[in-house]
Design goal:
The protein is built from 7 helices and 10 strands. It is an alpha/beta fold. The protein has one domain: P-loop containing nucleotide triphosphate hydrolases (Rossmann fold). It is globular. The structure holds adenosine-5'-triphosphate and magnesium ion. The site of magnesium ion has 3 residues, from helix 1.
């Protein structure tokens, strides 16, 4: 099996002593190329903590994480930043677009920072915006777009470097139901068209319904793992 993400017996505790919180307590999971995985569970059960660990934004106290063939614990900070820029796409609840940049510039920026020539980065951005149905919005700044449009720009930006996996924390958490549907169908088609895997933390039952697989979290552990 061609796994793009693997975690083995990962633990993460915040704080020390009496106030320590065991947020993730021995999680092992593998995600295949092109798989769409929904992570569900009660508030505080450790979902976002796991996502941050997989995103290399945080380090586990113990256990191992691989992104593609790369063992994350063997990388220094520069290596992790490089891995995040090239192999991992991140999508958040509140979009995190740069307000002074147009949709095209928001999508092109990470490519430009990675050394792609501006004209090429903008051409790729236009291609990505067209693929998320926003060709007509390329010149718009975030405050001139709807929430659903901003999130589709954020997905286009996350896909720009052709990552192995897109990690999303509550990608529909701030959207109305029509916009949620369009973002979910975009994530679904992304896995089918590009082979990029998607791992999304969600409270949205529609998100769980489109997923190939639902991971249930409880008290820092996976309490259920079912194919949909
Ligand atoms: N930076 C932090 N410092 C200390 N404790 C934290 C920190 N971040 C999270 N926690 C604690 O770790 C546990 C897991 O938090 P996490 O954010 O992973 O939960 P979650 O499943 O994403 O919840 P939600 O559905 O509300 O977003 C919680 O008890 C939380 O209070
Ligand atoms: Mg969370």
């Amino acid at each position: 099996m061609n796994f793009v993400v693997r975690a083995r017996d990962v633990h993460r505790t915040y704080g020390h002593g009496a106030t320590a919180v065991n947020a993730v307590r021995g999680v092992s999971v593998s995600v295949a190329r092109g798989e769409l995985v929904a992570v569900v569970g009660p508030s505080g059960s450790g979902k976002s903590t796991l996502l941050h660990l997989l995103a290399t934004l945080d380090r586990p106290d113990s256990g191992e994480i691989w992104i593609g063939d790369t063992k994350v614990s063997e990388l220094d900070d520069t290596g992790r930043t490089q891995l995040r820029r090239t192999k991992i796409g991140l999508v958040f609840q509140f979009f995190n677009l740069l307000p002074l940049l147009s949709a095209r510039e928001n999508v092109a920026l990470p490519l430009f920072l990675a050394g792609v020539r501006l004209a090429d980065a903008e051409a790729r951005a236009d291609e990505l915006l067209a693929s998320v149905g926003l060709a007509a919005r390329a010149e718009h700044k975030p405050d001139a777009m709807s929430g659903g449009e901003m999130q589709r720009v954020a997905v286009a930006r996350a896909l720009a470097p052709r990552p192995l996996v897109l990690l999303a924390d509550e990608p529909t958490g701030n959207l109305d139901s029509a916009s949620s549907e369009s973002v979910l169908s975009l994530l679904r088609s992304t896995t089918q068209d590009s082979g990029c895997a998607v791992v999304m933390v969600t409270h949205d039952p529609r998100a769980a319904a489109v997923a190939d697989r639902v991971l249930e979290f409880k008290d820092g552990k996976i309490s259920g793992d079912c194919a949909d």
